[in-house]
Design brief:
Strand content of chain A: 5-15%
Strand content of chain B: 5-15%
Distance between the termini of chain B: 27 Å
Keywords (chain B): DNA replication, DNA-binding, Nucleus, Phosphoprotein
Strand order of the largest sheet of chain B: 2-3-4-1-5
Largest interface: A-B, 70 and 91 residues
Shape of chain B: globular
Oligomer: heterodimer
Number of strands of chain B: 10
Largest sheet of chain B: 5 strands, parallel
Helix content of chain A: 40-55%
Helix content of chain B: 55-70%
Subunit structure (chain B): Component of ORC, a complex composed of at least 6 subunits: ORC1, ORC2, ORC3, ORC4, ORC5 and ORC6. ORC is regulated in a cell-cycle dependent manner. It is sequentially assembled at the exit from anaphase of mitosis and disassembled as cells enter S phase.
Structural class of chain B: mainly alpha
Radius of gyration of chain B: 35 Å
Shape of chain A: flat
Number of strands of chain A: 8
Strand order of the largest sheet of chain A: 2-3-4-1-5
Pfam family, one (chain B): ORC3_ins
Number of helices of chain A: 20
Structural class of chain A: alpha/beta
Protein name (chain B): Origin recognition complex subunit 3
Number of helices of chain B: 36
Subcellular location (chain B): Nucleus
Radius of gyration of chain A: 31 Å
Distance between the termini of chain A: 57 Å
Chain lengths: 459, 821
């Protein structure tokens, strides 16, 4: 199971071969992108030599943290290929995106002065400015790479942006390759009108062996690689089932490592005493999985706890604070809304009229009502129904004052109710209750109201 | 066809009888919002812009009218422009501030339904307050000392305002300190440690403070203001406050953020480059990148400034102060905007030390429901909880009402109204204080003798200069009359005839009242110490409940009091001792000076308890021995026997010394209560300092627009005071305004109303009495004028939100109010 990092480093000959680049660079590249050799070599063969025209657009996809961004970045910078790297989430409008590309392009070349601010509103402008920018420098005889990270955002921009980027080489008539990085498959990108099909490349998830190898690579200077690798092994044993995010795992490894070292630091165990170390760290990691991994408590709080050796008891996670204190009538309004959302309209008579007579559930129900309303989710109800239920469930008389009405809106802004339909609808507004059964039961308990008795599903 | 006629009616100028019969039911509130909001103004405006489709053209409405439509969005459909003066008390929209109104990502100025329009008082304050003083004089109760009254009112309110601000600050202090220290920690950890292994390996999260502030959203503004002030003073000048309604998309959010940050930087930067910043702001691209650039330039500038020993305000901040972004209403933000913003900023966290603060009204769970794990894993969230609003209220009541510092007092009913609004409706302390302010203003406005509601020394002086009319006012007070009746005949005559004697007596009575208040508060606290430790709290857990009970009537006559005394007689010794100790402390620190004796007595009780200690030991021995005996017997019969014996002995046993003493203590407390906790309205001249007209307050603070509107339309006499309208039971009078007739007729209909039938009924009513014996009415043709009047009335009803056009049936309208069918 344990992968020897040292073995891996002893390899002298690069797995990657390419005539255009010196072996030393390739070797360095290879050491930087472990477990992604095949993808990198495929990319290198697509890229060809520096002056070759490459494929106009490449689409790279794969799950979160499968190394897409990292590999592209290291590849391009290690081989010193001219490139532009843009995150599409950050550039939330097409204008920002295009201008960002042009600004980075300017800074690629030492000749032009950086100060001039580019203005680029349309793709047409972009193509023109792009040609200018490329013409003024030695970029002409090299392939320029434009990497668009989180490319799924492109779909939300103007319709022409994505197809135009895909055939940018053709539009500009320059040696340029556009690389799209995304977490979703190409099928979800393809516009209705059709477009140039990019070369799709899949980055598979890292296996547990890969994760082990990558995480072990960066061991702390004070401890040996073997020791750290053993720790990573334990860590993966706990977390691999819930989390395969490399970044997150690395973060967790860094957070908990000091706890792992504790017995060694105190001299109670030596580095090879793996069983003792495992016994020490395992419950700790399990606790971490329930708290800090879910962001119930923050990592700084977690570190603080670790340092002071405090018990977790005093520190409650975010989910522990579910209690919401509401004014008296707001509670009843919420209960009324819940009843209105989950009971069929016809049953109101049975629940809220004094002499409703006996209505048997089986005869009474229509076919579709036999499924639980709680499985179907809340249904919208008009304001009048809400108020009518409110008046009948509150013991004393409630005057329809402005305060009651404004509380309904307050509940909407607190996201406990939500309006259905247009926000501005004045006549006959409709609402939905968005709270859970547990929540409403807790609320009802505080006002001594047995909400279950009034719910059709529990009849 | 009908519709076309309707349009014709619109084009024609409105007739004379068309004025809405609704009149504002309350005296004009202290509207500092200017004359624009006066009823006439609104009516004028309405006449000019009259249209049945006005609701669809709300963007042209003046803000005050739009405010009225707030009701409708709030659920009540009865938008009445006549309720405006209530809404706009004290220059603010009291109603809107009152509700926990928060708009969700809409446009605030052009929307019909959603919007809270707050009118800050204009800077020309002086003039306005003079006007108010004049208004005071015009009050219904004559002009006596109106200016003095007004000044007293103002100074009192200013005192109270300062006090409340102080309270708020103290209460928030803990929270603010925690947040400030969190911010201080948040980024300093990473500075200078970049070489360390752990810090290199850890992913850098955005420090985030989740502030759970409770559902009383109205109070949050103040908290955020305090927070940003505290941050500005201690941590960083770069603070941006974001609200959900400004941030419907990531673009708007960035714009808002950069606008606020770059403006605040001008405060730090010298004045001369203000223009530069102003200009560049428009040109700057709203991206994170430019924000980072800006931050770099700004920090570099301040660095160089501090280097050149130009000590500016920035010197007290850290080397690179964090940028704080506060999301005021986390719940209302859309998920996408938040996610995008967090993802973007996490990419720049190394260059831009960002700190997020989430203002949460409900529970911190909302973070997890708004953000997926991939995004929340970018945050380092710490939770901060503010004081619960109920505790906040207790403190406010404690500091404002249960003190003899302020001469003004609230009567029982009024206090109950305020507390009920708080507990039942909004949980807003801010509103409570506003209500308290309203009480003060109303008291000084309506009670001419409120000139005497000031500090005792001033009040005595003012008594001397009372005019004859004012003396008559004193004589008219019910409590004073009762006092007079208790006096001897000679004295009675003197009191009723001689002003000078009256003034003397008044001074004495005022002093009595003052002393009463001082004693009242201390004894009330003592009693509360007793009652709050009893099981089930028969007299309430909070001191405010006890206070209300004592104000209402003689507390010692109530059952609850009786049962709590019973329970107090069963307290154990250690509890009793601590309680007594507390009582001594309260009485010693009290303002009243009648308590020397009481303190002595209580101390004596305490020493007696200590003396009892030795005897208690003996007693314990006895009981222990009997216990031992009990343990020895294993035989069931003997056990039963001894138990019975024990029981008998206990029953017949004389009270122990401790029990005797306990009775004594409780009786003493009882005597204190009977002495000092007399309800205020049994005191002479209580009307001077107590505000007790709860109905006025209820009308202002807990308005019922539906009921008011219904009364206005159903019984126009109520507001119009026209003898001809004096109601006649159920029948519909044709003298009533058209809209009233139409309204009454529509009450008899179901959910859909046939316009033709309605029109016929209307014309029958209108023509019936005009031509009592006319057969001409039978002719099918309805008079054009009546037709026009009808259409006008119907469109008025539509504007008020009672009906709407229906597509279900032709020539029908749908009823929107409940109660049809």
């Amino acid at each position: 199971m344990r992968v020897q990092v040292t073995d891996y480093r002893n390899i002298k000959m690069p797995n990657l071969e390419h005539p255009a680049y010196p072996a030393a660079t390739l070797l360095q590249l290879e050491s930087l992108v472990p477990c992604r050799e095949s993808q990198v070599s495929l990319l290198l063969s697509i890229f060809g030599e520096r002056h070759h025209f490459s494929f106009p657009s490449i689409f790279i996809y794969g799950h979160t943290s499968s190394g897409k961004t990292y590999v592209m970045q290291t590849l391009l910078s290690t081989l010193q290929l001219p490139h532009v790297f843009v995150n599409c989430v950050e550039c939330f409008t097409s204008r920002l995106l295009l201008e960002e590309i042009l600004t980075q392009l300017q800074s690629c070349s030492p000749e032009t002065e950086k100060t001039s601010q580019v203005h680029c509103d349309t793709f047409n402008d972009f193509v023109r400015l792009f040609k200018q920018a490329v013409a003024t420098q030695e970029l002409q005889d090299q392939t320029l790479y434009i990497v668009l990270d989180r490319a799924e955002q492109l779909r939300e921009m103007e319709a022409n942006i994505l197809p135009a980027f895909l055939r940018l080489q053709e539009l500009t008539d320059r040696n340029v390759t556009v690389i799209l990085l995304s977490e979703i498959v190409w099928e979800l990108f393809r516009p209705n009108t059709g477009c140039f099909e990019p070369f799709a490349l899949y980055f598979p998830d890292y296996s547990i062996g890969h994760l082990q190898k990558i995480l072990s690579q960066n061991h702390p200077p004070e401890y040996s690689a073997d020791f750290y690798s053993a720790y990573i092994n334990i860590l993966l044993g706990v977390f691999y089932n819930v989390c395969r995010d490399l970044k997150e795992l690395q973060h967790l490894a860094a957070l908990n490592f000091s706890k792992y070292c504790e017995p060694v630091a105190r001299g109670e165990a030596n580095e090879r005493d793996s069983r003792k170390l495992w016994k020490n760290i395992e419950p700790h990691l399990k606790k971490a999985m329930q708290t800090v991994y879910l962001r119930e408590i923050s990592s700084s709080q977690w570190e603080h706890l670790q340092r002071d050796d405090e018990e977790l008891g005093q520190l409650k996670g975010l989910s522990a604070h579910t209690h919401v204190e509401l004014p008296y009538y707001s509670k009843f309004l919420l209960i009324a809304a819940y009843l209105a959302s989950y009971n069929p309209v016809r049953t109101d008579k049975r629940f809220f009229l004094k002499h409703h007579g006996k209505i048997r559930k089986t005869n009474f129900m229509k076919k579709h009502e036999k499924t639980s309303n709680h499985l179907l989710g809340p249904k919208p109800f008009p304001l009048d129904r809400l108020l009518a239920i409110l008046y009948s469930i509150v013991d004393n008389r409630v005057a329809p004052t402005a305060n009651i009405f404004s509380q309904i809106t307050s509940l909407v802004t607190l996201q406990l109710l939500s309006t259905v339909g247009h926000n501005d609808q004045l006549d006959g507004p409709r609402y939905k209750c968005t709270v859970s059964l547990d929540f409403i039961r807790a609320v009802a308990r505080t006002v001594n109201f047995d909400v279950i008795k009034y719910l059709y599903d529990f009849l | 066809m009908l519709l076309r006629k309707q349009h014709a009616a619109i084009v024609a100028p409105p007739g004379g009888r068309s004025q809405l019969p609704l009149h504002h039911p309350f005296p004009p509130a202290q509207g500092r919002a200017g004359s624009y909001h006066s009823q006439d103004g609104v009516r004028e405006w309405r006449r000019a812009h009259w249209s049945p489709f006005a609701r669809r053209r709300q963007s042209v409405l003046p803000p005050c009218v739009r405010t009225a439509f707030h009701w409708e969005a709030g659920g009540g459909r009865l938008g009445s422009t006549r309720a405006l003066p209530v809404l706009l008390a004290a220059g603010r929209c009291v109603r809107c501030r009152g509700c926990l109104w928060r708009e969700r990502g809409g446009m605030s100025t052009c929307s019909v339904s959603k919007g809270c329009f707050v009118f800050k008082p204009s800077p020309k304050k002086r003039r306005v307050s003079q006007k108010t003083a004049i208004h005071f004089r015009d009050g219904k109760n004559g002009s006596e000392d109106s200016e003095l009254r007004f000044d007293t009112c103002q100074s009192l309110w200013n005192q109270i305002k300062l006090e409340t601000e102080q309270i708020q600050e103290d209460l928030n202090k803990q929270l603010l300190d925690n947040v400030v220290s969190f911010l201080r920690r948040s980024h300093s950890e990473f500075q200078g440690k970049t070489t360390e292994w752990t810090y290199r390996m850890k992913s850098r999260e955005i420090p985030t403070a989740a502030l759970v502030l409770g559902v009383n959203v109205t109070d949050h503004d103040l908290t955020f203001r305090n927070l940003s002030e505290a941050l500005q003073n201690n941590i960083t000048p770069y603070i941006a406050l974001l609200e959900a309604k400004d941030c419907s998309g990531i673009k708007n959010l960035m714009q808002k953020l950069m606008g606020q940050l770059m403006n605040c930087s001008t405060d730090v930067a010298s004045l001369e480059d203000e223009d530069y910043v102003q200009v560049s702001q428009n040109r700057i691209r709203c991206s994170m990148k430019s924000l980072v650039d800006w931050y770099e330039s700004v920090t570099k500038k301040t660095d160089s400034e501090t280097l050149s020993k130009k000590r500016t305000s920035s010197s007290k901040h850290q080397q690179s102060p964090p940028v704080v972004v506060i999301f005021k209403d986390m719940e209302s933000f859309t998920t996408k905007v938040l996610q995008d913003f967090i993802v973007i900023s996490s990419q720049h966290i190394c260059e831009l030390p960002l700190v997020l603060i989430f203002g949460i009204a409900t529970s911190p769970m909302i973070i997890h429901s708004l953000l997926p794990h991939s995004v929340s894993s970018l945050l380092c969230i710490e939770l901060f909880q503010s004081l619960s609003c109920k505790e906040h209220l207790s403190t406010v009541i404690d500091k404002l009402l249960l003190t003899s510092r302020f001469p003004f007092k609230l009567g029982e009913k009024v206090l109950q109204v305020l507390i009920n609004i708080f507990l039942y409706h909004d949980f807003s302390v801010w509103n409570f204080i506003r209500g308290f302010q309203l009480c003060i203003v109303e008291h000084f406005y309506s009670q001419p003798l409120s000139v005497l509601c000031c500090q005792l020394a001033d009040a005595k002086e003012r008594v001397n200069s009372l005019s004859h009319d004012q003396c008559e006012n004193v004589r008219r007070l019910p409590s004073f009359r009762r006092y007079v009746e208790r006096q001897e005949a000679e004295k009675q005559i003197a009191l009723l005839t001689a002003d000078s004697f009256l003034k003397e007596t008044t001074q004495k009575l005022l002093e009595d009242l003052h002393v009463y208040h001082e004693n009242y508060v201390s004894v009330l606290r003592c009693l509360h110490v007793f009652t709050c430790s009893l099981p089930k709290y028969p007299l309430g857990k909070q001191i405010r409940e006890l206070h209300c009970a004592c104000l209402e009537n003689r507390v010692w006559e109530t059952e609850d009091y009786e049962s709590s005394l019973q329970l107090a007689r069963m307290l154990n010794k250690s509890d009793l001792e601590t309680i007594l100790q507390q009582c001594v402390e309260i009485l010693v620190s009290s303002a009243g000076n009648e308590f020397d004796k009481a303190v002595e007595k209580l101390k004596e009780f305490l020493t007696q308890f200590q003396k009892l200690e030795a005897e208690a030991f003996q007693e314990q021995d006895v009981s222990v021995s009997s216990q031992k005996e009990l343990q020895k017997k294993t035989d069931l019969y003997h056990l039963q026997k001894t138990l019975l014996e024990l029981k008998d002995s206990r029953r017949s046993k004389k009270l122990t010394k401790f029990e005797m003493l306990r009775f004594e203590v409780v009786d003493y407390i009882d005597s204190l209560v009977r002495n000092y906790l007399v309800p205020a309205d049994h005191k002479t001249l209580h009307e001077v300092v107590y505000f007790n007209t709860a109905s006025v307050l209820r009308g202002h603070l807990n308005a019922a627009p539906r009921i008011a509107l219904h009364t206005a339309l159903n019984n126009p006499y109520n507001y119009l005071k026209n003898q001809a309208l004096k109601s006649d039971g159920g029948s519909i009078s044709n003298k009533a305004p058209d809209i009233c007739i139409v309204y009454k007729l529509h009450l008899e209909c179901g959910r859909l109303i046939n316009l033709v039938d309605w029109l016929e009924a209307f014309s029958t009513v209108v023509t019936a009495v005009e031509e009592p014996n006319a057969d001409t009415a039978s002719s099918d043709q309805v008079d054009d004028i009546i037709h026009a009047r009808f259409i006008r009335a119907v469109s008025e009803l539509e504007l008020l939100g009672f009906i709407k056009p229906s597509k279900q049936k032709t020539d029908h309208v749908a009823r929107l109010t409940w109660g049809g069918c």
